[in-house]
Design goal:
By secondary structure, the chain is an alpha+beta fold. The chain has nine helices and seven strands, in the order αβββαααββββααααα. α8 (197-207) runs antiparallel to α9. The longest helix has 24 residues, at 144-167.
Length: 232
């Protein structure tokens, strides 16, 4: 339900939501400092490219003379074209939490999700970003059997999301309600994207940090080129 509702609350551009100091004004989009280029942003490529370049600069600054970390930067930047949903490059863009994990999910005694907390970084972002959730991704160092609960949980989420998507009427962007949504009926859905390798790539790219960028680069290179690829 959470994924289905968020992907149906959309905006025409990427940016932070602003309703005035007392939340009494109509919602509008404003820039976010870490977007690097002036915003709000028009495309998903700008969003991911700006973040990746910022992370790469930090990686190189940490290890300027490393022969391994530069290739890792190249791999992590090159992967952008493999993760983007082509027919959603220019939106519309759903609201994304940006820190969605079990620690920010509250459940009742029957394990029913009742609340999501910590919305400080929420913004309108690319639909690819909406797929980023640690609980839905396996761990490369674990066996298939150890990763099986995660795989089964993700399959259930995808099936449930697919059913909800069929029941929801796609709404126009909240900041541009005159948009003809009939043109977007064939756009890729979140359930389809979650089931793809691209969503896994997006997870590792987004969750990567400068301190472990080399390891993330190796994981991503195997996702792109297969297990036979060698770093050498």
């Amino acid at each position: 339900m959470f994924f289905a509702e968020l992907q149906n609350l959309m905006f025409s551009r990427v940016g932070r939501l602003w309703c005035g100091d007392d939340a009494s004004q109509p919602v509008e989009l404003i820039p976010m400092a870490w977007h690097a280029s002036p915003g709000p942003l028009e495309t998903s490529l700008e969003y991911f490219y700006n973040k990746r370049q910022s992370e790469n600069r930090k990686m190189i600054a940490l290890r300027p003379d490393s022969s391994d970390w530069l290739p890792a930067c190249w791999v992590l930047k090159s992967v952008l074209t493999h993760m983007i949903i082509k027919d959603r490059v220019r939106g519309p863009f759903p609201i994304c939490h940006l820190d969605l994990h079990s620690g920010n999910m509250l459940f009742d005694d029957e394990c029913t999700l009742t609340r999501i907390i910590d919305w400080d970084s929420a913004q309108a972002a690319p639909p690819e970003q909406l797929s980023v959730c640690p609980e839905l991704n396996t761990f490369p160092d674990l066996s298939d059997e150890e990763n099986r609960p995660v795989v089964e949980s993700k399959d259930l989420v995808i099936e449930s999301l697919k059913e909800m998507e069929g029941a929801h009427e796609r709404r126009p962007p909240l900041d541009d309600p005159e948009v003809d949504m009939s043109l977007s009926l064939n756009q890729a859905s979140l359930s389809t994207y979650l089931a793809s390798k691209s969503a896994v790539v997006t997870y590792w790219l987004y969750m990567s940090s400068p301190k472990v960028g080399f390891l993330d680069g190796k994981v991503v290179s195997e996702l792109l080129y297969g297990e036979n690829v060698t770093w050498e």
